[in-house]
């Protein structure tokens, strides 16, 4: 049977009462649904927001002038409460949980990436439920993910999930008339026409970020759903092929290297700017080409061998990204030279469509 592995992401607004604080009823309901999935043979990774919101009930936050410090303190204190509360609800179903905190840099180097993947695989094979959140204490400004929807998409790609479920406080993606879009189709739906760029009171990225994550995950072969986290049957419906919400059908399959590279798009540590000749070869769908130093005009940023770098055209257009076989100094020294090993081998090159 094909792998049945679901990443479930729950937004802050779903987990919290309108008056503030975590909602025991919602957490209990989700724990019950996840336990039922597991009993049915599914492996599950939970990505839970809510640390900052939970921290509001723990810390008197009136005294913080610096908003960054305020958020760090609320998250650090709230994460403990969040995990303790999840722990109690999962214990009712004899399920032990484990905490995994991630930051953007964990996806930027292949070494960190493999360590985190190894840990998640270890937790799943030991029968534990990994509960993932962003490490809000160190993730500040440019080091932050857009939000936990993006993190959930990265985790789903990392663990080779078959399904990704983004739970929020609306029924799914709504069209301009407020009607639910049941099945997303890139050909007929226009994201920009549909979405307001707002978020709910506690949310960070809004529907825009859910849509970006869902489309990308579906493109990597992960069936994705955006749905109402307060719907008591939402996970079972998705698992049984009778999803309620907006479904993004999985398109194709991607290798594990390709999933890693795709998840790095937008988070790279450096760039190689290629000349027009190299661009023509790389973007020719009939060819499978590596990025060779002879076709590279400039190297930007600081990176190590094995890190992912962006590939750009000379006018700044992003063509894709790939794993560099040189560090930044070696790459600069090799610029424009013939008969050198590829800067990026085609097996580790991800080109945008
Ligand atoms: N077309 C749309 N369909 C549904 N929700 C939308 C749309 N455009 C904007 N939104 C807003 O996006 C919000 C969900 O994103 P967000 O607040 O980040 O939630 P979460 O905390 O679940 O991540 C919705 O509550 C809604 O206010
Ligand atoms: N890491 C933050 C969540 C940030 C976030 O993306 O929130 P949300 O948009 O509600 O999923 C927290 O735990 O408070």
UniProtKB/TrEMBL annotation:
Keywords: Amino-acid biosynthesis, ATP-binding, Cytoplasm, Kinase, Nucleotide-binding, Proline biosynthesis, Transferase. It catalyses: L-glutamate + ATP = L-glutamyl 5-phosphate + ADP. Substrate binds at residues 49, 136, 148. It comes from the Bacteria. SMART domains: PUA. GO terms for molecular function: ATP binding; glutamate 5-kinase activity; RNA binding. Its EC number is 2.7.2.11. Belongs to the glutamate 5-kinase family. This is Glutamate 5-kinase.
